[in-house]
Amino acid sequence: MAVRACGLIIYRRLQPAPSSKVTDSIEYLLLQTSYGTHHWTPPKGHVDAGEDDLQTAFRETQEEAGLQASQLTLIEGYKKELHYPVHGKPKTVVYWLAEMKDCNTEIKLSEEHQAFQWLKLEDACKFAEYEDMQSMLKEVHQFLCSRE
């Protein structure tokens, strides 16, 4: 059976400089794992029994980044499933998009992660080494730009 996980792509908007586009002020939250290859990823984790996918995404975000659902705004109209093998087994990860209500909210990492960064799209894509993650970040950015 496929492993299922859920998470949130979290972004914040900084005050844009008067000359810059609004989308230039968007930064994405990536967490660096404290295990394996120390890869960078949005907060995500496995679905627990009795939980729906979105509950899992919010619970994992609270556990891994210390962010409560009340500190985030879920963005309607964006949901993405990624499918890839992990240790020879199929894995599905479902992501939603959420904006920080206060861009200065403190991130509190769990033991699962050793670092976090707020990154502009280009840097986020460099840190996210997997091609499907890079594609999703670009897709999210395009989605946000189209809403401006």
UniProtKB/TrEMBL annotation:
Its cofactor is a divalent metal cation. Gene3D superfamilies: Nucleoside Triphosphate Pyrophosphohydrolase. Keywords: Hydrolase, Nucleotide-binding. It catalyses: a 5'-end CoA-ribonucleoside in mRNA + H2O = a 5'-end phospho-adenosine-phospho-ribonucleoside in mRNA + (R)-4'-phosphopantetheine + 2 H(+); a 5'-end FAD-phospho-ribonucleoside in mRNA + H2O = a 5'-end phospho-adenosine-phospho-ribonucleoside in mRNA + FMN + 2 H(+); P(1),P(4)-bis(5'-guanosyl) tetraphosphate + H2O = GMP + GTP + 2 H(+). Its EC number is 3.6.1.17. It comes from the Eukaryota. The keyword Nucleotide-binding applies. One of its GO terms (molecular function) is bis(5'-nucleosyl)-tetraphosphatase (asymmetrical) activity. InterPro entries: NUDIX_hydrolase-like_dom_sf (IPR015797), NUDIX_hydrolase_CS (IPR020084), NUDIX_hydrolase_dom (IPR000086), Nudix_hydrolase_domain (IPR051325), Tetra_PHTase (IPR003565). The keyword Hydrolase applies. Residues 1-141 form the Nudix hydrolase domain. GO terms for biological process: AMP biosynthetic process; ATP biosynthetic process. Catalyzes the asymmetric hydrolysis of diadenosine 5',5'''-P1,P4-tetraphosphate (Ap4A) to yield AMP and ATP. Exhibits decapping activity towards FAD-capped RNAs and dpCoA-capped RNAs in vitro. Belongs to the Nudix hydrolase family. This is Bis(5'-nucleosyl)-tetraphosphatase [asymmetrical].
